[in-house]
């Protein structure tokens, strides 16, 4: 098994010609991938969508058990406006509708984010040769074929094969007692001391407002530069060995200027990003360029339902579904709490839906960092590229030799 799902490279990206894409390339891709697209499209209950690109309009609708692309607008449906750069970035999987939404640039005179996300699933299914997720499509099984025990917690001395299988199957892993509570107390004390070294607007920290009107520091980047306890942890063999669990060669490298972050989870946040709702780490795009990286959460304090615990959707890394928010009735995958004690570590793949539950009784402290896939293309990537070649061949038209400027989220 492999969690290396990368199928694209940035140097492959060429600008998309809207007329050629909607009149020929997308209809052809939809026809080739019809068996992958149609079951999920039927489940989505798609509302017709008009896409307008620099004054030209095309309509997408599902009729007679197939998705149709036609010139001109459709009456009574949703409307999405894109410029030429945004279309290129969307087609090439470098952004998603969530990118536009979070940046305040989702231009939809009719309809809204749910319509954009539903049609995004259709687009990705057709272009990436992935089935849209439907309830019952994913089962979670142990190595012997029995149902996976999703409440299982591991320790570092457990069999690597069992940990790897669980991670591949469920998309997350809970490791107990990796670091001593006394070590986490040192980290916590360093967090308190480091607060004064951050300033709002320094681009190295995140801030939020609590119900009492106080601005609170909630995320400190490059924390190892301010905490010897954190820096020591990043050199510890127990930590460095976590990347090997996947079997895909994940390493703690390539994290320029921000090797680890320390987070405060205060009670009663009313403004700012602290308790992040359901999302995949690729929710703003680049799934096919970077997934699956591996995120490690080191519990500085314990966490439960009252103190900001992590929650995950088991198996969601294997599902083409909304990359953020959970659409009612969209899946039957288990939503799980991951309560932890100080010194525990949680691992989750970048494609696993997860969220931070708002604390209500006591605040939580945690550190986050990630392990990256090797830069060199793996066998898994080569095989994925081969599977996609037929679907993607001729899907994009170069209209300029200059690369398209990326759309950045704010």
Topology record:
Elements: H1 18-32, H2 34-44, E1 49-53, E2 56-63, E3 66-71, E4 78-82, H3 84-91, H4 97-102, E5 107-110, H5 113-128, H6 160-170, E6 172-175, H7 181-194, E7 205-210, E8 215-220, H8 228-235, H9 237-240, E9 261-265, E10 269-271, H10 287-290, E11 294-299, E12 310-313, E13 335-338, E14 345-349, E15 354-356, E16 364-371, H11 379-392
Parallel strand pairs: 1-4
Antiparallel strand pairs: 1-2, 2-3, 4-5, 6-14, 7-8, 7-10, 8-9, 9-16, 11-14, 11-16, 12-13, 12-15
Helix pairs in contact: 1-5, 2-5
Structural write-up:
The protein has 410 residues and is of the alpha+beta class. The chain has helices at 18-32, 34-44, 84-91, 97-102, 113-128, 160-170, 181-194, 228-235, 237-240, 287-290, 379-392; strands at residues 49-53, 56-63, 66-71, 78-82, 107-110, 172-175, 205-210, 215-220, 261-265, 269-271, 294-299, 310-313, 335-338, 345-349, 354-356, 364-371. The strands form three sheets. The chain has an eight-stranded antiparallel beta sheet with strand order 6-14-11-16-9-8-7-10. The two termini are 35 Å apart. Residues 387-410 have low confidence and may be disordered.
Helix content: 25-40%
What series of H and E elements makes up the topology? HHEEEEHHEHHEHEEHHEEHEEEEEEH
Low-confidence stretches: 387-410
Q: Which structural category fits the helices and strands?
A: alpha+beta
Described by the principal axes of the CA atoms, the overall outline is globular
Number of strands: 16
């Amino acid at each position: 098994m492999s969690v290396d799902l990368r199928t694209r490279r940035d140097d492959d990206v060429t600008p998309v010609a809207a007329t050629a894409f909607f009149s020929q390339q997308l209809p052809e891709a939809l026809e080739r991938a019809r068996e992958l697209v149609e079951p999920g499209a039927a489940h989505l209950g798609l509302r017709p969508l008009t896409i307008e690109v620099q004054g030209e309009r095309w309509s997408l609708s599902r009729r007679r058990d197939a998705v149709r692309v036609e010139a001109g607008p459709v009456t009574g449906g949703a409307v999405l406006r894109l410029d030429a750069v945004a279309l290129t970035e969307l087609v090439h999987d470098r952004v998603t509708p969530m990118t536009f939404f979070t940046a305040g640039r989702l231009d939809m005179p009719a309809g809204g984010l749910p319509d954009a996300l539903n049609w995004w699933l259709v687009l990705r299914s057709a272009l990436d040769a992935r089935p849209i997720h439907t309830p019952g499509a994913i089962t979670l099984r142990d190595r012997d074929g029995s149902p996976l025990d999703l409440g299982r917690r591991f320790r570092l001395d457990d069999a690597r094969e069992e940990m790897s299988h669980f991670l591949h199957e469920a998309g997350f892993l809970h490791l107990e007692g990796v670091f001593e509570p006394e070590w986490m107390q040192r980290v916590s004390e360093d967090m308190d001391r480091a607060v004064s070294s951050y300033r709002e607007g320094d681009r190295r920290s995140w801030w939020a407002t609590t119900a009492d009107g106080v601005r609170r520091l909630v995320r400190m980047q490059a924390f190892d530069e301010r905490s010897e306890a954190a820096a020591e942890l990043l050199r510890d063999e127990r930590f460095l060995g976590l990347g090997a669990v996947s079997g895909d060669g994940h390493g703690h490298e390539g994290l320029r200027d921000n090797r680890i972050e320390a987070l405060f989870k205060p009670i009663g946040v009313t403004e700012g990003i602290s308790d992040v709702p359901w999302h995949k780490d690729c929710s703003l795009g680049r799934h096919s360029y970077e997934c699956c990286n591996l995120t490690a959460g080191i519990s500085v304090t314990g966490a439960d339902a009252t103190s900001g615990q992590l929650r995950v959707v088991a198996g969601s890394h294997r599902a083409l579904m909304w990359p953020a928010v959970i659409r009612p009735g969209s899946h039957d995958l288990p939503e799980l709490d991951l309560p932890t004690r100080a010194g525990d570590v949680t691992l989750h793949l970048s494609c696993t839906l997860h969220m931070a539950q708002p604390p209500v009784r006591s605040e939580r402290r945690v550190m986050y960092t990630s392990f990256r896939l090797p830069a060199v293309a793996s066998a898994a990537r080569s095989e994925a590229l081969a599977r996609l070649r037929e679907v993607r061949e001729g899907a994009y038209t170069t209209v300029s030799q200059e690369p398209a400027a990326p759309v950045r989220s704010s």
